Amino acid sequence: DTNISTKEGEIYFVEPGHIWPRYMQTSAQVTKTADGGFAVMYFDQSESFSNGNTSFTTRANQVVRRFDGETGALQPAQTVMIPHIQLNGSFSTSAVAPSLIGLNDNSVLIGFHSTTAPDALMPDFDASTFGVYARGLSATNVTGAFTRVNQTTTGDQRNVLFLVSPGGALVSLFVSTASGTPAVMMNVNGAESVVDNQFVMSQDTRPRAAFLDADSLVVVYERQYSAYVPGVSDSNNVAFTIMNVNGTGESARIDVTTPDQVGVSVDNPQIAVGRDGTFLVAWDEGPAGNSAGTIRGRIYTSAGVAGGAAFDISPISQSGGVGGAGSTPGFSLD
């Protein structure tokens, strides 16, 4: 009368009707904090198998832990920022694509998008479809209220990224379908502006950005054509726009990769800026529909002028999985 389950390559014997708890911590992100330490955010997830085998409910909390910057010692215990996200049950706050940043007052801010209110008492919940939300964690580890980031509430708002300008302004970047066409949006202290709204990227890719100086930032993103050009599939490219923190564009859209490359897939653009304003854009590139790919990069001056052609960062094509085309490059530039 014992069911046998073979999860994770091991065999577990569970009496019928009993609960089998399983715990995982996944999807970690890290940010520096103003006190010289750092904070780590991750999903703290458990699964309860009500019949001891196949029927299960997954619950997850989005948590943050602070650490000392010199010793790496944990300062307090973990703090639950988004409680009880029930991923495949009847109740769900559906906190998707979380983002993390440390602020100048030593607080930490997390953001995410959701189809349901993260707080049932929110007065300004985005009731249309997806909305972007944030919650702060103070220097003394007190959680704040959930707030809505996007000002426009029509259409979907997804995949938020936070930055802090050298002058202390909080910048939010996300994708919006408010105009009917996916657009990259920028919100600076509550004021929204459009970065790019022509054939802009798939809503599953987060825009990335970095500051060139106190006022200017480079926003890099993936544009996608397959939904708009009849007969053209798998056609996309990586581009960037230089924006001012006041919401105005300082450059037109600049294509990093060639648009309309039929049969070529590019994904996951990233950016890092050096001290002189030189910046590097990197992305995944490979044949469309193929799991093999190469991480490529291209150098630009602070004015957005290419310093040469694109080059391979991983010179040998990788197969899928870890290190393959689905992997997101990550780097810094000195």
Question: What distinguishing features does this structure have?
Answer:
334 residues; mainly beta; four-stranded antiparallel β-sheet; 22 strands; 46% strand; disordered N terminus
Write the layout of secondary structure elements.
Elements: E1 3-5, E2 12-14, E3 20-32, E4 38-49, E5 56-67, E6 79-86, E7 96-102, E8 108-114, E9 131-137, E10 147-148, E11 157-164, E12 170-176, E13 183-188, E14 191-196, E15 208-211, E16 216-224, E17 236-244, E18 254-255, E19 264-273, E20 279-287, E21 294-300, E22 311-312
Antiparallel strand pairs: 1-2, 3-4, 4-5, 5-6, 7-8, 8-9, 9-10, 11-12, 12-13, 13-14, 15-16, 16-17, 17-18, 19-20, 20-21, 21-22
Summarize the structure.
The protein is built from no helices and 22 strands.
Shape: globular
Unreliable stretches covering 5 or more consecutive residues? 1-9, 87-91, 317-326
Number of helices: 0
- The average pLDDT value, as a whole number, equals 77
The main sheet comes to:
4 strands, antiparallel
- The number of strands is 22
Gyration radius, in Å: 21 Å
Q: Numbering strands along the chain, what is their spatial order in the largest sheet?
A: 3-4-5-6
Share of residues in helices: under 10%
* Coarse structural class: mainly beta
Give the H and E element order.
Answer: EEEEEEEEEEEEEEEEEEEEEE
Distance between the termini: 62 Å
> What proportion strand?
over 45%
